[in-house]
Amino acid sequence: MTAVLIEGLLGAPGEGTVWRYDGDDLLALGVWTERSRGGGEDAEPLFAHRVSTAEGILGVFDGLGGSGSTAACELSDGTTRSGAWVGARLARLGVASWFRGGHAPESLRTRLVEVLRAVPPPRPSKIVSSMRRWLPTTMATVRYRLTGGQAECRVLWAGDSRAYALSPGWGLQALTRDHTDETDGLEQLICDPPMTNVICADQEFTIDTQVLLLPLPSVLLCATDGFHGYVATPAHFECHLLRAMQESCDTREWAERLVRHVLGYTGDDASLSLVALGYPGFDRLRADFAQRAEQVEARYGGCDRPAEEEAARRWRTRTWNEYRPDYERLMPPPVEPL
Amino acid sequence: MTSDQYRGNLRYAVDIVLCIDVTESMTPVLDMVKKSALTFHERLNLVMSGKGKEISQLRLKVIAFRDFGDFAEDAIKETDFLVFPERAADFDRFVRELFASGGGDVPESGLEALALAINADWERGLDRRRHVIVMFTDAPAHPLHAPEAVTAHTYPQGIPGDLDGLLEQWGYARSQTAVMENAAKRLVLFAPDAYPWNEITEEWNMTLHFPSVAGQGLADLELHEIIDTIANSL
Amino acid sequence: MRVGDVIRGYRIVSEPTNSGGGRCMWAFAQRGGRDYFIKRFLDPKRPKEGSTASARSVRLRLEACEEFERRHRTIMGLLRPDAVGGGNLVLALDFFHDGTTYYKVTERIHTARTPPPRVLTPLRKAVLLRTLGLSVELLHGVGVVHGDLKPGNVLVRQSRAAAYHIAKLIDFDDAYVSGRPPDREDIAGDLVFGAPEWRRYVHGDADVPPEWLTTRTDVFSLGLIAHHYLTGALPGFGDRYASPADALNEGAELRIDERLSAPMRGLLAAMTARSPEVRPDTRTFLAVLRNPAVCEVRAPYLTSPGSRTRMSRPTRERQP
Ligand SMILES: Nc1ncnc2c1ncn2[C@@H]1O[C@H](COP(=O)(O)OP(=O)(O)OP(=O)(O)O)[C@@H](O)[C@H]1O
Ligand SMILES: [Mg+2]
Fold this sequence. Notes:
CATH superfamily of the largest domain in chain C: Transferase(Phosphotransferase) domain 1
Largest sheet of chain C: 6 strands, antiparallel
Order of helices and strands of chain C: EEEEHEEHEEEEHHHHHEE
CATH architecture of chain A: 4-Layer Sandwich
Strand content of chain A: 25-35%
Oligomer: heterotrimer
Strand content of chain C: 15-25%
Shape of chain A: globular
Bound molecules: adenosine-5'-triphosphate, magnesium ion
């Protein structure tokens, strides 16, 4: 099988990297940015698609700097990278090879454990607390297969990276639920709760999963919290996505605008992988979303957002409550604490 | 039995009879045939696979001839049909023992060789067949049953009395006397533009004539040309 | 036939060869300052003047010749070189026998070195396939089956450096009227590009009557040629079989190259269907090709760029 590498388009330093692909009923783009130059701990956003079986995968991986930054690896090219940096990339590698091999969903965790084990940790004494994990990373991936006008989706995730579906009728719909004790999307934005489950080499972790059937055409995306964790309300992430889309004239421009948008509001590394399935081209995609873009902009865009703090809080709560039912319609139910 | 027989596909049988004049002047051609005996099969397959076609069964037969009227004992020597590549070594041994010599007067016993070739034991099975006779000679031939030839005790039995009779054996579209399959057969002549080759070329169907320039023999004949010519006819 | 010979005023100017010719020798020729292609048929042969053969032998051979001439003249009558839009059909300008041998003369097509079609851009591929499709449609429009469609019977020509590549369709000598093919022993056709019903007919399969060999038999071959032009290869048919037709006749399926666009895959799958009735006609072929994008060839496996760095070294504590 000949693999074709989608070419990455490198922006100016500090401007991130994008790639895009325009194919038969298949548009895809990726955005990768880093907060400080050379330190980006998000892995490059993943997208792979096998034409013969009409299946593909997208995913993002956020190496967790806070919990993994002290220990480091030396790479074969001589540079030194944090455990978080390495963890995210290894997880990406593991997912990509798992997809290529056509393995069962259940085997993903084993594959990840295998891949992470390949890099032995520094001497145990050096990892001081249990908070400090070796090669820690989040993951959000969607593996899809196109059959009879539908996309069969298997969502797999750990931590607070997210997978979404985006449609003109329902807007942005989360397909994952963060692994945090706090389950309210707006509260998560406000207090940035600690994660209860992340992928790492030296502690137990779980891969959460759900299966969905989505009608075609369909847009799927995965993003790290650099994209969705620094907005005023969950709706604002959708506003950014659609605004950038509507302002663009092709897939590449959309990706480039997303870089500029996210650099404008994020406080972290941010990466995103997106695929539009069943759209003959970008123009059609943009046309389909034109009305939805106007609506979210008008309702949640925030032109009429009050300046006064208390009023602003109330406005956020109100719009969130309005936005929430559609946003959560495909979300797996929260796990009831025992 | 080849592995091909288990395939669900069409099987292509190729039989080739090489009629080689081994009188003295033929040394260069004979040398070429000797050199290529072991690789002939591979080369032919290479050219064929270049066309996306595959030979399921290849058999070669050699008929070496001189002149019955001149010296009866070594006027004709022939092999059976040898299946390639299994019998390549036998083929090689046979041609290596050939040496170009003798010949007497200029015309040779080419027509007798051709008659033997026409009456060879051609493959009748498999799905599609090609039966090719290749004649290499630099000389005209005596008419069939020439008086000095028929007296030779080695003169083959049952050979038609004249060229008309041989044509009836070679056949044509609706012929009922043909011993060759009309669609399968090809006659390739590397021979001078002289009797009987010119007459055969004129009247026989499925015949390709590559005339040698008189007096120059077949010295400049190249193996790849021969293989291409054969492959083109397959 | 040799260089320098003059046959009916055509002077042979190239070494005659059987290269690419199944039942002929051919050469280039000139007459009146114009270039021609001349083909000498290996079969049938007329009995020579004053033949000493039996009357029966002479009669049988003459009958075969009359039949041969009739078939050629019928096809020539249906396909006139001056027909509108027939510019890319390389038709007979002259057909005669000189002594015992039949000859056919056509315009000479100059095919300077052209790249294999698979390396052309999608637009160029579309133009090439459309010119081929139009020629075949013209044939089919008058109820004629080419009978031997294969890349060897399509000359690809580029008239000027930057011009589009054009398909010139040659070799109508095995053409027949739709539904009325030559006998099973006589019918021509290509082992690789031939259709399943043609294979069975040749094979003597009594379930395949002559009426089954129609213009749809050409459509099958045209589908294979298009696949070959677009991808450089035939559809996959498994190495157990010698040809796509054999594979289909054995119940196997053809694998259309997945890198082809969806409409092209659909079209080629339909054109190479086992059953002639379900194959589309050339009009459908041309309609699909109206959009050159269908000729694009895509990668079967796409993957986004990632870091290539290898993490194989032992780890160490980072010094603060
Ligand atoms: N008009 C032409 N101009 C230039 N070359 C030609 C022309 N027609 C045919 N040729 C060349 O001559 C070769 C043989 O011609 P053609 O296909 O008509 O012979 P054929 O005996 O019918 O072959 P087959 O039966 O194998 O298809 C072709 O492959 C081509 O290379
Ligand atoms: Mg031809």
